[in-house]
Write a structure and sequence with these properties.
Shape: globular
Distance between the termini: 52 Å
Strand content: 5-15%
CATH architecture of the largest domain: 3-Layer(aba) Sandwich
CATH class of the largest domain: Alpha Beta
CATH topology of the largest domain: Aspartate Aminotransferase, domain 2
Number of strands: 13
Order of helices and strands: HEEHHHEHEHEHEHEHEEHHHHEHEEEH
Number of domains: 2
Structural class: alpha/beta
Number of helices: 15
């Protein structure tokens, strides 16, 4: 066995550790809730989960998942077009379509797969894809799998987006791809302006709403609802693994002709096992809960506003935003990792985000609020941030 690659990898890993970029896995031995238990037995308050609505361990969601598995089995052992389509898959696709106010929906194992499979079947060498530079890695990978011409504009820079549209006018088809809520900064895409430019230059619009679906917008339908853009977005990709129960699964939703072509040609859909029945059942229940009340959406946004205001008062540098993602900026990679470790000692579970997850020099602690958090949880986290922040001379 050749040791050349192994030796190189060992050196690279050691270099990552020296630069403060090495990411350790922490082991949790409890369900995903506001309070969790780590492998040492220590109880922690969790402030870094995508569990925006607190549904990851909701009794009704768990019960629905269990009942669905009891009736439909553990797995399908097949892809959808062979013998892997159950009645409940069609029910979930219809339910998501109704929730997002679109024609049709296609289920995937994850939104990463949805983004990986959306571009290649639709856009060839004569087409162009125009993408925000801070789009999620899955969007970037999906674009790379496609032979269309690629354009990238500076984050939320509408002048540069328009310039890309002008440069690509010879393309047969064009699509603008953007996150709805950008996962690292927690800011919203400038969708009204994007849609206006798309109409002006005859381009389609795709929005990855993974960090929006469930709690952004008056009834949690996402950024299109927040901006009043119903019918203006051609494709929405999103996940069931965050607000909608936090398990797995994702989808692409939009115009019926586009979804039908993806059913025929999208490789992650054609060659991956069907979504497990338990996840389908749990997601259906999560959507049902959302339609019954907006209480959870309102609570997570109240929690985020409270935390953001108190942290600014304390002197921390916070990226401006109106979502449940609140980045505490440190800019220094080793300091971000050290702060996360010290916060752990204070009983607050947060993670340092460093390169390559964020650009070099943009290190941070990304705090994510949840409807599962109570005010006393948030106050304890703020107190810990202030204590550790003073220790590290951040404030």
């Amino acid at each position: 066995m050749s040791q050349k690659l192994i030796g190189e990898l060992q050196e690279l890993l050691e270099e990552q550790k020296k630069q403060g970029l090495y990411k350790n896995e922490r082991v949790i031995i409890s369900p995903q809730e506001a309070e969790i238990t780590i492998s040492s037995g220590q109880k922690m308050l969790n402030f870094c989960a995508n569990n925006y609505l607190g549904l990851s361990n909701h009794p009704a969601v768990i019960e629905a998942a269990q009942e669905t598995m009891n009736r439909w089995g553990y797995g399908l052992s097949s892809v959808r077009f062979i013998c892997g389509t159950l009645q409940i898959h069609k029910e979930l696709e219809q339910k998501v379509s109704e929730f997002l106010h679109v024609d049709d929906t296609l289920l995937y194992a994850a939104c990463f797969d949805a983004n990986g499979g959306v571009f290649e079947p639709l856009f060839g060498e004569e087409s162009a894809i125009i993408s925000d530079e801070l789009n999620h890695a899955s969007v970037i990978d999906g674009v790379r799998l496609c032979k269309a011409r690629r354009f990238r504009y500076r984050h939320s820079d509408m002048d540069e987006l328009e310039e890309c549209l002008k440069q690509s006018q010879s393309a047969k088809h064009r699509i603008i791809a953007t996150d709805g809520v950008f996962s690292m900064d927690g800011d919203l895409a400038r969708l009204p302006e994007i849609c206006e430019l798309a109409g002006q230059y005859d381009a389609l619009v795709l929005v990855d709403d993974s960090h929006a679906t469930g709690y952004i917008g008056k009834t949690g339908r996402g950024t299109f609802e927040h901006f009043g853009l119903e019918g203006k977005i051609d494709l929405i990709t999103t996940t069931f693994g965050k607000s909608l129960g936090g398990a797995m699964g994702g989808c692409t939703a939009g115009r019926k002709e586009i979804i039908e072509m993806l059913r025929q040609k999208s490789r992650p859909y054609l060659f991956s096992n069907s979504l497990a029945p338990a996840i389908v059942g749990g997601t259906l229940k999560a959507l049902e809960l959302l339609e019954q009340s907006t209480e959870l959406q309102e609570k997570v946004m109240d929690n985020a506003g409270y935390f953001r205001g108190k942290m600014l008062e304390a002197g921390f540098t916070i990226v401006p935003g109106d979502t449940a993602i609140v980045p505490v900026m440190l800019y220094d990679e080793p300091k971000a990792m050290e702060m996360a470790d010290l916060m752990l000692q204070e009983g607050i579970y947060v993670i340092g985000f460093v390169y390559p997850v964020v650009p070099r020099g943009k290190a941070r602690i990304r705090v994510q609020l949840s409807a599962a958090h109570e005010k006393e949880h948030i106050d304890k986290a703020i107190a810990a941030f202030i204590k550790v922040g003073k220790t590290l001379k951040v404030i």
